[in-house]
Hints:
The complex is a heterodimer of chains A (102) and B (210).
Chain A: E1 3-6, E2 10-13, E3 18-22, H1 36-44, E4 52-58, E5 66-72, E6 78-83, H2 93-99
Antiparallel strand pairs in A: 1-2, 3-4, 4-5, 5-6
Chain B: H1 9-12, H2 21-27, E1 36-39, E2 44-50, H3 55-64, E3 75-78, E4 81-87, E5 90-95, H4 99-110, E6 115-119, E7 127-130, H5 134-139, E8 156-161, E9 164-172, E10 176-181, H6 183-197
Antiparallel strand pairs in B: 1-7, 2-5, 2-6, 3-4, 4-5, 7-10, 8-9, 9-10
Helix pairs in contact in B: 3-4
Amino acid sequence: MLQIPCPWCGPRDETEFHCGGQAHVPYPAAPGELNDHEWGEYVFYRDNPKGTRAERWMHSGGCRRWFNVLRDTVSYQVLAAYRTDEPRPAIHPSREEAGAPR
Amino acid sequence: MAEPTGTGPLTLRRSPLEHLKDTMRAASVSGASGVSLTEWPFLTMVDVRVAPGSAAAVRIEHALGTPLPLRCGDTTASGPHAVMWLGPDEWLVLSQEDGAELTDRLRAALGEDAGSVVDVSANRTTLELRGPAARDVLEKGCPLDLHPRSFGPGQAASTTVGPVPVVLWQVAGAPAYRLLPRASFADYLARWLLDAMREYGHEAEAPLGS
C-alpha cells in the first residue's frame, strides 16, 4: 500500500486516489496542424522510465483535487507531491538512493 | 422520531435508513465496550464553493457567523451551523435551519462573484456512531488515523469506511462520530457498521476457561 502525501489533505492511503498517468504532457501548440501520427503520439505515447517519474494523481476519496507526484518506478517510493501550479521539484539522485527502502 | 405533521412534501419523504431504524436500535449496546448506531435524517446541507480569502468568502463568513475552516480536518461552528472543509475552495455547511432559507441567504452573500451555493441536503444522510467502542468499530475499515493524537472532537475529513466514501466528523471525545455517506450508499454502510458492531457489548459474560 502506498501512502501518498496529498498537498491539501496530508498522507493518505493509495486506495483514496486515482492515478492519471504521466504528468507534464504539453498540449500541442498548434493542434490544427497535427497529422494522425502526431495526434497518436500526443494521446497514447508515454515515457516508461526506470527511476523517477512524474505522475498526475487525484484524491478522489478526499478533496477531489488533481496534483502531481514524483515516484520511483523501481522502489515505488513517493519522492514528492506538489500542486499543479507548482514547478516540478528537483530530486537529487543520491538522496533517492539513500531514502529508498531496502 | 416524531412523524411529521401537516401536508405537503415533508409528509411524504422517507429517510434512506428508515427501514433499518429498528435493527439499528436493537444492535446498539451500552456498557464499557458499548456502541450505538442511529440515523439523524434530513439535516440541511449546503455545498459552498468560493475562493478562500476573497470578498465573497468574507460575506459568506459574515452570513454564517463563523469563519470558513482553511485546513483539511478543521471544522467551525456557530449556532445552528457547522462548517467542514471539503477542499481548498469547497465547504459543506450542516445546519438545523431550513435548507431553502439558508441557501438563499448564502447565495445573496455570494452575489455575482465566482462561486456556487447549492442545497445538497438530499445528497447525504447522517449516521451517528457513539460509545466507548466506536473508534474500534471504525478502525476495522477506515484508513484514517483515528487515534486522539491525530483526530479529535471537532475534526472532520473525507475518507472511506469499508468501501463507502464518507465525510467522517468526530463530534465528541466519548467518542462519538457522525458519518455522512451518500444516500444510495447509506444502506450498505449501515449494514457494514452493524456487522462490525456485533462483537461488542458482551463484557458481562464470563471469559472462556474461567
